[in-house]
């Protein structure tokens, strides 16, 4: 499979990761994942903006403009030709020898860019039936708004949930629900949609951004306020959102049913609107071609 490595598109077997790459040694880098529908990148601009925000938060100067990065990603997408999938791209702070914790001089050390595309299909079974999750203490750092490649905290949380036989982790910080291990988390109570406010404790999801827009059009009230474990267990519905999995209902947490233990009415309405928005996006791109 072809990948993007800095400015080149080459076979993945030709990529050389230096032992002293700061991404490899420190997890010193950031990433993004954009969903590709019918050969087009969905909400590309929003993902690129968040990528630039993450770069700024880790004090990294990117060696290309948004337009240049977008052109490279599109070159890769054209070369690989996957119609439905996701593009993953990351930038590490680069190769600096010897290994020192100090950030290297950005005039000397250039960030290293990598991108690859993999096929992905809509997880329809999970979207229709929902999944079972477990509560896990949120022990991640306090920069969860940065889309950092250092995902160990998220991986540990997911693994803890899986060890207990659940498919997903619902993270709790000081009794409040933050998000899931790689998704934003939502609950519905008495027709109102609740989710954790953006800030340092969660990733500001691009899917979350889209849902804000769709719920406005649907006339569903959204409150971005933190809620507790107890409030979530007493909710009517729960779901998680991410670019790759879109909207997936959570029907049980710690073996306790949420609502009637089935994907809820409001969740289904939002999922339907989300898929319709994607179909419109795809149609608009087809008409442009
Ligand atoms: C921790 C975390 N929260 C939320 C999300 C959802 O973000 P998005 O909707 O932009 O994919 C992700 C996606 O990877 C994530 O890793």
Produce a short descriptive summary.
It contains eight helices and 15 strands. The chain has helices at 22-26, 44-57, 66-80, 124-129, 152-163, 206-218, 229-233, 265-288; strands spanning 2-5, 8-11, 29-37, 40-41, 85-92, 112-119, 131-137, 168-173, 176-180, 184-189, 192-195, 222-224, 237-242, 246-253, 256-257. Pyridoxal-5'-phosphate (PLP) binds next to helix 6 and strand 13.
How would you summarize the topology of this molecule?
Layout: E1 2-5, E2 8-11, H1 22-26, E3 29-37, E4 40-41, H2 44-57, H3 66-80, E5 85-92, E6 112-119, H4 124-129, E7 131-137, H5 152-163, E8 168-173, E9 176-180, E10 184-189, E11 192-195, H6 206-218, E12 222-224, H7 229-233, E13 237-242, E14 246-253, E15 256-257, H8 265-288
Parallel strand pairs: 7-8, 7-14, 11-12
Antiparallel strand pairs: 1-2, 1-6, 3-4, 3-5, 5-6, 8-9, 10-11, 10-13, 13-14, 14-15
Pfam families: Aminotran_4
Family: Belongs to the class-IV pyridoxal-phosphate-dependent aminotransferase family.
EC number: 2.6.1.21
Number of domains: 2
- Percent range for β-strand residues: 25-35%
Bound molecules: pyridoxal-5'-phosphate
- Name the overall outline: globular
Q: In the CATH classification, which architecture of the largest domain applies?
A: Alpha-Beta Barrel
Total beta strands: 15
Which regions are unreliable across 5 or more consecutive residues at pLDDT < 50? none
Q: Rg, please? A: 20 Å
- CATH names the topology of the largest domain as D-amino Acid Aminotransferase, Chain A, domain 2
Say which CATH homologous superfamily of the largest domain is assigned.
D-amino Acid Aminotransferase, subunit A, domain 2
The string of secondary-structure elements, in order, is: EEHEEHHEEHEHEEEEHEHEEEH
CATH class of the largest domain, anyone?
Answer: Alpha Beta
* Helical/strand content category: alpha+beta
Counted by DSSP, the helix tally is 8
State the helical fraction. Answer: 25-40%
Main pleated-sheet profile: 9 strands, mixed
The span between the termini is: 26 Å
Overall pLDDT level: 98
């Amino acid at each position: 499979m072809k990948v993007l490595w800095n400015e080149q598109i080459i076979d993945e077997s030709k990529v050389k990761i230096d032992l002293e790459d700061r991404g490899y040694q420190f997890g010193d880098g950031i990433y993004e994942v954009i969903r590709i529908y019918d050969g087009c990148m969905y909400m590309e601009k929003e993902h690129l903006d968040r990528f630039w925000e993450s770069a700024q938060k880790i004090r990294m100067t990117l060696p290309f403009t948004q337009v240049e990065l977008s052109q490279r990603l599109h070159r890769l997408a054209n070369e690989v030709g996957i119609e439905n999938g996701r593009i993953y791209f990351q930038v590490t702070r680069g190769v600096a020898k010897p290994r020192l914790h100090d950030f290297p001089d950005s005039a000397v050390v250039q960030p290293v860019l990598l991108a690859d595309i993999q096929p992905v299909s809509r997880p329809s079974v999970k979207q229709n039936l929902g999944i079972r999750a477990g509560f896990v203490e949120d022990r991640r750092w306090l920069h969860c708004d940065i889309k950092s490649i250092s995902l160990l905290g998220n991986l540990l949380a997911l693994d803890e949930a899986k060890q207990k036989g659940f498919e997903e982790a619902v993270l709790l910080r000081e009794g409040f629900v933050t998000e899931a291990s790689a998704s934003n988390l939502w609950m519905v109570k008495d027709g109102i949609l609740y989710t954790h406010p953006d800030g340092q404790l969660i990733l500001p999801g691009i899917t979350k951004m889209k849902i804000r827009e769709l719920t406005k059009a649907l006339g569903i009230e959204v409150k971005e306020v933190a809620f507790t474990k107890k409030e979530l267990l007493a909710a009517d519905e729960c779901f998680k959102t991410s670019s790759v999995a879109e909207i997936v209902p959570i029907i049980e947490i710690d073996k306790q049913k949420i609502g009637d233990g089935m994907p809820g009415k409001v969740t289904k309405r939002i999922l339907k609107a989300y898929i319709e928005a994607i179909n419109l996006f795809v149609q608009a791109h087809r008409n442009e071609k």
